[in-house]
Specification:
single chain; alpha/beta; 4-stranded parallel beta sheet; two-stranded antiparallel ribbon; 8 strands; 32% helix; 16% strand; globular
């Protein structure tokens, strides 16, 4: 699941300062119950704006970050596609960052890492079409001159002509659509929730 809150607790567990049952999302073999496997509940972060901006200074991947800065604007997915694990990893509730917070991260990343491009790695960037449009407008107004792409795929039922125009003006150069099957019977069986 999401590790921002549970990873520090896990580090305390490794130091012997707490027990494994206190680490959210941890699966482990219990010592006191004949090796029974336990799985702690996953803790989802409800307000993504509470998270600090990513800090890539500890990594030796500056060239990669400059060309493909990974931008997360939302997490989760309410859909129940049978082939997808997003609901298990990031949860069914779709949670998002405010558009202003997203663009502020891009401004900082351009200043701190000299990025020239970024990738939106959300599973559902266009879930709220108006929010996606606002992010694009803010990118345009900030005159960032960055190119970008949506690499996880977006739903065909969560876009419109105005959004595509704004995405293009904001620097979007590639969009991946999830077109799982052109066979209507197969498509119905994957439970994507669109036609």
């Amino acid at each position: 699941g999401e590790a921002e809150n549970s990873l520090p607790v896990f580090m305390k567990f490794l130091k012997g300062e707490t027990t494994p049952d206190r680490v959210g999302g941890l699966c482990y073999r219990a010592q006191d119950e004949a090796g029974k496997i336990k799985s702690n509940s996953v803790e989802l972060i409800s307000n993504l704006d509470d998270l600090p901006y990513p800090d890539f200074t500890a990594f030796d991947s500056r060239a990669f970050i400059r060309a493909k800065y990974p931008l997360v604007t939302s997490r989760g997915c309410p859909y129940e596609c049978v082939y997808c694990v997003v609901g298990k990893v990031s949860g069914r509730p779709w949670r998002f960052r405010r558009p202003e917070y997203v663009v502020e991260e891009l401004i900082r990343a351009k200043r701190d890492y000299q990025i020239s491009a970024f990738e939106i790695v959300d599973d559902n960037f266009t879930m709220q079409i108006d929010r996606a449009k606002e992010i694009c407008r803010l990118i345009i107004n900030a005159n960032l001159n960055l190119t970008w792409r949506c690499i996880n795929g977006i739903r065909a039922d969560r876009v419109d002509d105005e959004l595509f125009g704004l995405m293009n003006r904001a620097g979007c150069r590639k969009v991946w659509f999830g077109i799982e099957s052109l066979n209507s019977e197969v498509f119905a069986n994957i439970k994507k929730g669109e036609k």
